[in-house]
Automatic annotation (TrEMBL):
InterPro entries with a match to the protein in the record: NAD(P)-bd_dom_sf, Sc_DH/Rdtase_CS, SDR_fam
Protein's name according to its UniProt entry: Short-chain alcohol dehydrogenase
Coiled coil regions, renumbered to chain: none
A Gene Ontology molecular function term of the record: oxidoreductase activity
Entry's family note: Belongs to the short-chain dehydrogenases/reductases (SDR) family.
Alphabetical keyword list: Oxidoreductase
PROSITE patterns linked: ADH_SHORT
Length: 269
C-alpha cells in the first residue's frame, strides 16, 4: 500500500501508541486527523507533527460516539481527503478482577464497540471506491490473556475477532486490515496500572512487565506502519509472542496449567 498522500484518523492519539502511530504515519506522508478525549493532548500531537513538516488536524472526540466519529471523518474530508485509513487505537484497561455490570459496559464500549461503530461508518464508502484500511490496536491479551483483568482480556479477544471478521468479509472488496498485538509498552496506560493499589491490578502489571521486554510506543508504531504498507494482518511488535501463541494453540490445557503456575509465582512475589 502506498502511504504517501493518504488520509488517516487515529483515535486515542494524545499520547502513547496513538501519538506514536500518528507521528509515524505523518512521517510517511500521510495526513493525520487526531482524536482523543484529551483535547489539549490531541492538539499538542497535531502541533508537533506540523512542526516537523507533516499534515495534521485534531479534534476532541470520544471514540465510542457515532457523532464524534462522524465529526472526525468530516474533519478529514474538509482538511485533507476522504479517510483512507482508520486506526482504532483508543483503549482502556478497565477494572481489575471480574468487575461490575457498568465496568463491563465501559470496557466493551471502548475496546470493541468503538471499532464496530467506526467500521459501520467507513466500510460502505470504502466498498464503493474499492479501497480502505482498518487498523485495530488490540493487545497480546487478545491472543493470550491478561492476568488480573477479565474485562481487558475478553474485550481484546473480541477486538481481534472483529478484525479477523473484517479481513475475511471485506478483503475481496479491497479493504485491508491489520491487528496490532503488543505485549508490554511504556505508555500512560501501563503507568496507570502500576499505580493502582489492588492485588489484581498489581498482578496484571507484573505479568505485563515480566512476560517480555517493555518496548516504546515508537517501536510499536514503526512495526505497525510497515505492516500497513505491506498489508499484513497480524502485527507482533514483540517477536517472542508468536512462539507463545503457537504453544497455546498447540496444547491448550498445558498452556492453562502454565499460566496458573505463572500466576502463582507472581502472587508470591
Amino acid at each position: 500500500m502506498e502511504l504517501a498522500g493518504r488520509t488517516a484518523i487515529v483515535t486515542g492519539a494524545a499520547s502513547g501508541i496513538g501519538a506514536a502511530l500518528a507521528t509515524e504515519l505523518a512521517r510517511r506522508g500521510v495526513s493525520v486527523v487526531i482524536g482523543d478525549l484529551d483535547d489539549d493532548g490531541a492538539h499538542a500531537t497535531a502541533s508537533a507533527i506540523r512542526a516537523d513538516g507533516g499534515a495534521a488536524a485534531a479534534l476532541r472526540a470520544d471514540a465510542t460516539s457515532v457523532a464524534d466519529i462522524e465529526a472526525l471523518i468530516t474533519l478529514a474530508s474538509r482538511e485533507f481527503t476522504p479517510v483512507d485509513i482508520y486506526v482504532a487505537n483508543a483503549g482502556v484497561i478497565g477494572k481489575p478482577g471480574l468487575g461490575t455490570e457498568s465496568d463491563w459496559d465501559v470496557i466493551l464500549d471502548v475496546n470493541l464497540r468503538a471499532h464496530v461503530r467506526a467500521a459501520r461508518l467507513l466500510v460502505p464508502h470504502w466498498q464503493s471506491v474499492g479501497s480502505g484500511y482498518f487498523v485495530s490496536v488490540a493487545s497480546a491479551a487478545g491472543l493470550l490473556t491478561q492476568l488480573g483483568a477479565a474485562g481487558y482480556a475478553v474485550s481484546k479477544h473480541a477486538a481481534v475477532g472483529f478484525a479477523e471478521w473484517l479481513a475475511v468479509t471485506y478483503g475481496d472488496d479491497g479493504i485491508g486490515v491489520s491487528c496490532v498485538c503488543p505485549l508490554g509498552v511504556e505508555t500512560p496506560l501501563l503507568q496507570g496500572i502500576r499505580g493502582i493499589d489492588d492485588p489484581d491490578a498489581k498482578l496484571g502489571a507484573s505479568s505485563i512487565e515480566q512476560s517480555a521486554g517493555v518496548i516504546s510506543a515508537a517501536d510499536v508504531a514503526t512495526v505497525t506502519v510497515e505492516a500497513i504498507r505491506e498489508e499484513r494482518f497480524l502485527v507482533l511488535p514483540h517477536a517472542e509472542l508468536l512462539e507463545m501463541y503457537r504453544r497455546k494453540c498447540g496444547d491448550y490445557d498445558r498452556w492453562i496449567s502454565g499460566m496458573r503456575r505463572y500466576q502463582r509465582t507472581l502472587r508470591s512475589l
